Amino acid sequence: MKISTKDFGSKSTLITFENKSGIKISFTDLGARIVDLIVLGKNIVLGFESAQEYLEKDSYPGATIGRTAGRIKNGLVEISGKSFQLNQNEFPQALHGGQESFDRRLWKFDIFDKGDVVGVHFDLISPDGDNGYPGELKVRVTHSFDENGQWKIEYRAISDKDTVFNPTGHAYFNLTGDASQVIDNHKLKLASSWFVPLKDKSEVVRGDIAMTKGTDFDFQSGANLSQAFESSNKQISLVSGIDHPFLLDEPGDIKKEQARLSLNNLSLSVFTDRPSIVIFTANFGDKGTIFRGNTEVHHGAITLETQVAPGSQQIPELGDISLKAGNLYKSTTIYQLKIEK
Known about the structure:
This protein is mainly beta and 341 residues long. Helices cover 5% and strands 42% of the residues. The strands form 8 sheets. Strands 11-12-13-14-30-24-23-18-21 form a 9-stranded antiparallel β-sheet. The protein has a 6-stranded antiparallel β-sheet with strand order 17-28-25-22-19-20, with no helix packed on it. A 5-stranded antiparallel β-sheet has the order 1-2-3-4-5, with no helix packed on it.
């Protein structure tokens, strides 16, 4: 396995691993994020060529999102019987941990090489009161990569006060390698019978869950994403695509393929111990960002964000994002590349 590093600007470093198959994957300590995933000559992760571009254009692509991923209604959480007001950076909601959060910070890093598996540990201390969250939180996110094209993300965290924690990775995928190409011909298979509807364009959840069967949210047998993009379903029309949590039918089994995104001979499978996957289909209209010289079109990418579904404060059935003082948070997500011969 080849390992290289280089300056990525704004005091950050770009770390690249290349396996024997020629697949390259790159990470940076700015936001503990993935920057590149190059396979078959295509960079299938949307990203920028410098840290400064992330800070100026959009700091979410590829980043570790925390302390909590997604929107929290009115930025209010209840922790151990007490109410806490979080930073309402998408007023009145709190989004992706608040302003200037994990995605915009420089993490400490340590590269490791175990032969067939290489990786990097990213470490961050989030201080007590950070964007309104209680407790000093020590976080480690480990990205590893192996000779079989497996990219693994492991999250570990511990707090000195009761708090909430629900991280995710915010990679945008386009298997053409070109953000100017619509992903309507990408096939999505998803082991989910239920999704969480949104209340309105504020994109906070409505307060219930709904079956996917019989709707254009049903990807259990696999379907092209055009199924959703061409749909008249009110939930899809609301956000001009998909921006919804999908609840997994068999959560917690890291050996079960929970999702698969495929195009032609290339596929990306998702394995996770988290109970849901948030699907977002880059519903930006004509406001697309320029990634590596290509302007992102409407529906120019998709996220597969593993986490507890946003809205657990309103719908406890979605899962528990509380983290008790002194308890170790652990979760794992795997993205597996496969090339059909």
